[in-house]
Amino acid sequence: MKILDKYPFILDFALRAFYSEKEDVSDELKNVNTMQDDVLFQVCFGHIDTYKFKNDVDPFKVYKMLRWMGDGYIHDKVQKFAWMKC
Predict the structure, then answer these.
(1) Contact 39/32 with Cβ under 8 angstroms?
(2) C-beta separation of 78 from 12 below 8 A
(3) In b/e form, how buried is each residue of 50-75, taking b as 16+ CB within 10 angstroms?
(4) Of 18, 19, 10, which Cα lies nearest the Cα of 81?
(5) What is the value of pTM for the model shown?
(6) Sign of dihedral through CA atoms 40, 74, 2, 25?
(7) Helices 59-85 & 26-45, crossing angle to 10 degrees?
(8) What is the model's pLDDT at position 85?
């Protein structure tokens, strides 16, 4: 929080770079993020016995849903932080 107080636009910059669709780096970032999905899935789920999941449940989809929830949480916090700075 101290860093965000000192540099309030750093989080906005990072989020724009990560979710950018209009910049020249967008395609490269999408490629990196796609590759990161597989790596992060292994980090998060590599030690889990996925046989405990129901047969029709794909562990990678569970990982993706957790990531989407995290993205939503970050978006919510960014919105509240931006509102507090006004």
Answers:
(1) no
(2) yes
(3) eeeeeeeeeeeebbeeeeeeeeeeee
(4) 10
(5) 0.62
(6) positive
(7) 120
(8) 61
Tokens of 25: 């780096």
Q: Is the model's pLDDT at 21 over the cut of 70?
A: no
| Both structure tokens of 46 | 């590599």
Torsion of CA 45, 77, 13, 28, to 10 degrees: 30
In sequence order, the 6+-apart residues with CB closer than 8 A to the CB of 82 are 12
36: nearest Cα among 47, 48, 44: 44
Q: Which two tokens stand for residue 39?
A: 């790596």
Q: What is the mean pLDDT of the chain?
A: 80
**Amino acid found at 51:** Y
